[in-house]
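Case study B.
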Amino acid sequence: MKQMGMIAMGFYEIYSKIKDTDFDNLLQGITGQQVDRVIGADTVSENGFLALLSPAAGKRLEPMAQKAHNLTVRNFGRVITLYTPMYLSDFCTNECVYCGFNTKNPMRRRTLTIEEVEREGRLIAGTGLRHLLILTGEAPHQAPVEYLAECTRRLRKYFSSVSIEVYPMETAGYRALVAAGVDGMTVYQEVYDPAIYDRLHIKGPKKNYLFRLDAPERACQAGMRTVNLGALLGLADWRREVFALGLHARYLQDKYPDTEISVSFPRIRPAAGQFRPAVEVTDRELVQMILAIRFFLPRAGITISTRERPELRDNLIRLGVTKMSAGSCTEVGGRLDGEGHERQSDGDGHEGQFEISDTRSVAEMKAAILQHGYQPVSKDWLVI
Amino acid sequence: MDILKIGGQEIHNRLFLGTGKFASDALIPDVIRASGVQVVTVALRRVDFENQQENMLNYIDRDCVLMPNTSGARTADEAVRIARIARAAGCGNWVKIEVVKDNKYLLPDNYETLKATEILAREGFAVFPYMSPDLMAARQMRDAGAAAVMPLGSPIGSNRGLQTRELVRILIDEIDLPIIVDAGIGRPSEAAEAMEMGAAAVLVNTAIAVADDPVAMAEAFSLAVKAGRQGYLAGPGAVKMYAEASSPLTGFLGTDY
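Model:
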């Protein structure tokens, strides 16, 4: 493993202490009574968090949900913040077996011009959304930091918050993007288990597990306002993965209290290529991990994307989620046609990173959230 | 008539309302009407001046006194910039300073808050600093020109009530500015308690916004605040901390003057 950019005493120090734990045995040994005690307690320790991820806790979802709901409403109100993703470039040098942007996947690729970025930004802003997430594959030559900075400066005219979900970079890169107006950063570790990580990431810079693991911390050090973590669910045993995710989030919360740490729960979706998930994560299990994280990290934001089906997303509104994407498109320039107008049809040989399940428009999403007794919020930050 | 004169305004209702957590902004007019609330705080980060359909300011009665807040600021500098944006956008000259660098408990940073208070008071704002109840910091806020100080009862959203009771009581006794208890008030009875102690007002958001019936809860809070205030003004009989001794130790001194 290369040591480039490794942070001394970073999260790996903590993770390496738990990674060889016999979790199966530990989780099986947790009793319903132990879970009940955790549900009733004021604060939840690491052991308590693990208990909430146990099979025994899986039989107590209703009392967990009641309390998680109350915790969320008290801390965040009856409010769901909306955002939408915008893909800037699908060039990628990585060979990740599960991803549609896999460098081996034969598809036409492109990087939007700055003008195209601004046009698509204007279209999105027309829906009223003020929070944007910009994404690229991992090909810094095709979408360098300076390009991302220029896109951000243009997009800041239309959006009060611009976040990035791009290749991991050094602290200086994040600092340059913060200076250009980026206020949030998302990076999914994909898999915390280093052996599985190594198997699924066949080639490319992403092979460097530690450089990716430390990326959120470098973003915190660069002054990023919000940092969002996730594990791609379906690649490994979810209980261990979510336990590692929770510890990672807690580690960053403790060390960088002025950064808002949030977590996402991306379940793997079909994409180009033949990959099928190693582990199926059911709806019940997804709910259990969301509730467990809410107990362990009462103030952390929780994001659910359009990877999930509309009915499920609607039901998750009351279970701890604070942020949702809407009107999503996982394809570069997917909202534009040749003239930069709103796109009418598909089929120009480009492909998205993965398939979307919830295809509702921003307006439909807002209506659905209101109908569930929550306020859809399009703007929750400002350019200062 | 019991009027709170503060920041150049005359306030008749000592319940101040926070707006961040409602299920719909459309509830806010009914909440204001039912409770008679006059002072309303709004996070500037949530206001979209460019989208009139979703501009929450449209739901706040024109007769209300707007108190924009700097929610999201992590430093004095950010708070100052947010306050200036609010004033430039026509939100008046009141500002509630919130500087929070701690995302786990959302506790305010008194030092940064003081720095922002100094700058904004000099610029003519009516400054309402949200703070941890610390006497020295409160004195400094007063000296810096704060219009009031806003100590927390317990952490934001915790609904734990007046956990900081003793420290707030000291501020009420020692600081010759209105003391407005902000954050943590979970029940009308706790709001009444703060007012009985001599708080000038209380600010409530979570307990009203997430109640099953926010309109009824706002009215309940308004009544509790009035009751607590009236109790304070009526001057409750002192609670005797000691029994009357049958053979007094100072009887030989004769009658008290």
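DSSP finds 15 helices and eleven strands in chain A. The remaining cases will be described in the next quarterly update.
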